[in-house]
Every structure is written in C-alpha cells, then in structure tokens.
Amino acid sequence: MKRSFALLVPVLLLSLSACSSTGQSVQSSDRGSSTQSGTSGPTGWAAENRSLSANRNTFVAQVSERHAIPRSHIEQLLATATVDDRVVRLMTPKGTGGRVTRAWLSYRSRFVEPIRLRKGTTFWDANRQTLNRAEKTYGVPAAIIAAIIGVETVYGEQTGSFRVLDTLYTLGFHHPEANRPEKAQMFRNQLAALLDLDYRDKVDANAATGSFAGAIGLPQFMPVSIEHYAVDGDNDGHIDLRYSAQDAILSVANYLAKHGWRADAPVFAPVTLPANAASLVDGGLEPSMSWRQLQSHGAKLRAGASGGNWQNGKEIGVIDLRDEVRGVHEYRTATRNFFAITKYNRSYFYAASVAELAHGLAQRQRANGHQVTMPY
Question: Predicted confidence band at 130 (pLDDT cuts at 50, 70, 90)?
Fold first, then answer.
C-alpha cells in the first residue's frame, strides 16, 4: 500500500519555493532539493533545473530514461493529471509587474507572533526527544528546526487541498509566466521526481495533496527535496512528512546540514557594524566576507561577546533587512548558518524570521528550565 501525504500549504508559497515557502520572499523563493530514490545525478538546485522537454511525449521519454521508470507507468499517471485553474490564478503575478515593496517589520510580524510561539512550545515539549536527537546528529539547534516547521505550516495546521500531481503538471506545462521558462522547467523536474517517488512507492501521486506550488508535509518539501534529503526518523521503513513529526524533524535537520549548517555557530554574529554598513551589503546567498575584512571596515565585537568559528575564513556577510514602507534599514552580520536557511527559502526575510521565531521559542524553553541552544 502506498502512503499518501496530506500536504500543508505554506502561507504563500513563493514566487515559488522549491522546498517550502511562506509569504512573499524578498528574493526569488526557489528551493533546493534532493534524492533517496537510488538514482544518480545532480542534487539540489542543479537537480531542479536539468532540461526536460515541454513536449509531453518527449517529457515521458526523458523521465523514463532518467529514473528508469516504464513509460506506461508515467503515461498512466499523466493521463489522470488535469490543469488546475486555481493554481494558475494563484501563481499569476499580481499588479503591473513592478518591483514588490519590501517591508521587513510587516513580514516578521506574520511569523514571529503569539500563536506560533505558543504552538511551537507545545510542539517542542511533545517532540523533545526527537528534536534533541536531530540536534545531536546534524548539529542543527532544536529551536531552528521547530521554527521552520512553525513558519511553514504552523505545526501542521495549514493543510493544503491541492492535488500535487495536478499542481506540478499545471505549472510544468501551463505556467502562467511564459516569459519565465525556467520556472516551468523547475516544475517539470519536480513532476519527474514525484513520478519517481510514486513508482518507488514512496509517495502516492494519485492521492498526495499539498500547497499550490506542490510542497509536501509539515516541512513543505518539494518532491526533489524528498528524494534527496527526507529521512525516516521513526525507522518504520517509510518517510511520512505529513503525519510523522519524527520524519519531518530529522528531514529538516538533514536538509540544513547538507546545505552548509555549521554546528556551534550562531545565525547572526555578535557584531557592531560601522556607520557605512550599507556599502558592505552584496545581496548574495553565500557568505562573502572574512571577519578580518569586516574589521578593516570598522566592525567590532560587541561588548561582552565572544568570538567563534565564524571568525575563520569567509564565513559571514552583511545583510539588509529593509523596510521600504517605514523607510528604515536593519543591518546584521549573518553567518554561514543564516545562508543555510536561505537555501530552504531564498529570502533574507524568511531566514531572519525563522531565526527570530527560533530565538523566541528557545527563550521560552529556558524560562521553563530546559537547557537549549540559542540560535544567536
């Protein structure tokens, strides 16, 4: 029997997020991925963007060859796929195509708020042993794991009603942005991964439901990410990201570890930036500076703060959490761990919100007498 994933819908899945998504991303919200299907080849973003034809017959042949799946199996599933007009509508860019106004404080308030803090504390208390095991195994703090699940799905409460097969078929072959062919290409790769997961009895493509971008489970993994990074946390022989908190927790930790998370490093370095911090921002998704370089521009360790492994090599970058509505900028020194979170959703706002929710959750745990790792 195949196990179906009743998927969770993120608060606003990306301009498109490949592993999860929430809210409007600051940059494009495409997501990294992975595979445990036994197939070889690229992983992560490279896997999501390999060439697959927009011609249905050619697509079937390519997927059959890539994943060693009988064409008849692919054709049988695709014969049941339909174009979902709701997906097209939701993924159609709003407005006139101008740049989206960025408002950090408004974005933050959607995720660092009382409901997620309360439900996150309950989730942590109920899954303490698993969260501790994930932190010990992968080096990712329990607070960060719990925060991601909270930001993505409010701990499983926001369940998507979109049939994932229809969603990925729609976006792979009928994407509303004809001038952005790379988006349709990514979704065709996600569809190929779903077909592979179905063939290997890991996801029931006929039954799986989820977000309007095709994300699955408590952590909102896209199919490619399920293939490469999902973990059988409860050791029952199946990966169930919807109903098994253990699978979801270990999978999130594994994802971040595979995307560069460093144990014993904060998300933000305890640094006082110089007045010209704006000139140090490069807007990238990788750390680009060394502590020595940042010091040469006038940055200093905060009074009473200690250093860490982020001071060795190019492990940091200055980020701008801008609020264009209020006309303010908030500059922070992000470590490699911050940039690892951006691989989950390619947005500074997203990663900073995860870190701040994690900080709030960890503070509550400490107030209740538990010794936990603070994210920064």
Answer: very high
Report the pLDDT averaged over residues 294-307: 96
User: For residues 316 and 294, what is the distance between their CA atoms, to the nearest angstrom?
Assistant: 9
What residues does 160 pair with on adjacent strands? none
What the block records as the tokens of 309 is 């492994």
pLDDT tens-place string over residues 313-354: 999 999 999 999 999 999 999 999 999 999 999 999 999 999
Token pair for 140: 């990712």
Which residues contact residue 213 at a Cβ distance below 8 angstroms, ignoring those fewer than 6 apart?
10, 13, 14, 16, 17, 21, 91, 167, 171, 222
Q: Can you tell me which residue has the tokens 């994407």?
A: 175
312: its two tokens? 């060795």
- 89, HSE (Cβ side, Cα atoms, 13 Å): 3
Secondary structure class of 191 (helix, strand, coil) = helix
Beta strands in the chain (DSSP E): 162-163, 209-210, 271-272, 289-290, 300-301, 314-323, 328-335
Query: With 80 as the cut, is the pLDDT of residue 100 above it?
Result: no
- Strand partners of residue 159: 8
